[in-house]
Amino acid sequence: xxxxxxxxxxxxxxxxxxxxxxxxxxxxxxxxxxxxxxxxxxxxxxxxxxxxxxxxxxxxxxxxxxxxxxxxxxxxxxxxxxxxxxxxxxxxxxxxxxxxxxxxxxxxxxxxxxxxxxxxxxxxxxxxxxxxxxxxxxxxxxxxxxxxxxxxxxxxxxxxxxxxxxxxxxxxxxxxxxxxxxxxxxxxxxxxxxxxxxxxxxxxxxxxxxxx
Length: 212
What we know:
By secondary structure, the chain is an alpha+beta fold. The chain is about 20% helix and about 35% strand. It contains three helices and 14 strands. It is elongated. The mean pLDDT is about 90.
């Protein structure tokens, strides 16, 4: 029901809300309700944010799935290779109301893993693709390689990624999250046919982004 990636944060928030509730008792009666409401709202939002619903990957071959819940911000070409075909950038914006657990988009081996410190611009600001803190990930299945990045946002200051270089992963598998609003950018190979467009909603581990 809740992701283990958020246990430490949930415990801290619970303790803080308990302290606020206890402190409310020493204030005048008129202050009780606002303080208790603040504590309850904060706790409920935290529990809602760290929810981790069950997902079933489509029983289809040669597909690339969305690694994150959210809304498609960008679908655009990224230069050209020697064959004249272009890799495609697909960006997914995750609001604080989305499920933030990230999932593997393609079965294969983790061939690239690099953390890059950076700024904390708004996630929907396209400058964040290059400037913000990020975790870069590459997965190769022997036929194609997909590169994608967990990118922090204005509120997100904590990227969780449990992958190891050389690790074999399965499509739809949980691998981490970005806490409190962010984006995920994917670079799909020229051989992939993108099936989504800007404005479309995605579900991690279920929505098919492309076929190859």
